[in-house]
Amino acid sequence: MKRDNWFVTEYAARSAGKPDRCFYCNSMIGELHKTECVIRIKTAVMDFTIRMVVDVPEFWKPEDIEFRYNEGSWCADNLIDMIKKEEGDCLCSHVQAEYVRDATIEDEETWGAVRVNELES
Ligand SMILES: [Zn+2]
Fold first, then answer.
1. pLDDT for the residue numbered 85
2. Which residues of 56-69 are buried (b: 16+ CB within 10 A; e: fewer)?
3. What pLDDT was estimated at residue 68?
4. Can you tell me the distance from the alpha carbon of 49 to that of 98, in angstroms, rounded to the nearest whole number?
5. 13 CA distance to ligand 1 centroid (A)?
6. Cα(69)–Cα(53) distance, integer angstroms
7. What is the pTM of this model?
8. Residue 110 to residue 103: CA distance in whole angstroms
9. How far is the CA of 4 from the centre of ligand 1 (A)?
10. 43 Cα–ligand 1 center, Å
């Protein structure tokens, strides 16, 4: 999701720059940040897929396994403990990130960890 009112505030000034303007695009406080300024943020919907090995009853079919994790009583919060049990390297080799689309306001309300209209500028 994009927004149009990216006015420069004191937030965009940095101690290494001048106090009356954006450190990144040099627009003055009260003006709009330039189109290419890094302060202008949009939100995007992403899918993060985690690949891991789990143990299930031997006789279960694929649909039984998917039912357990998608529709059964299993809670996805358990993934946090399951991931912690993996020793050694970080999660990078287990996770695939895929861009879905630019977010809508409905996406932000449903899945948003960030809301573009609440960001400082
Ligand atoms: Zn700027």
1. 61
2. eeeeeeeeeeeeee
3. 94
4. 8
5. 9
6. 13
7. 0.77
8. 10
9. 13
10. 18
Q: What is the DSSP letter of 12?
A: G
Among residues 47, 65, 63, the alpha carbon closest in space to that of 107 is found at 47
Q: What is the mean pLDDT of the chain?
A: 92
Q: How far is the CA of 50 from the centre of ligand 1 (A)?
A: 36
78 φ, ψ (degrees, to nearest 5): -65, -20
* CA 94 to ligand 1 center in whole angstroms: 36
* Per-residue pLDDT tens over the stretch 82-119: 876 656 678 888 899 999 999 999 999 998 889 999 99
pLDDT of residue 82: 82
Q: How many CB atoms lie within 10 A of CB 22?
A: 26
Angle at Cα 53 formed by Cα 52 and Cα 58, nearest 5°?
Answer: 150
Q: How far is the CA of 72 from the centre of ligand 1 (A)?
A: 48
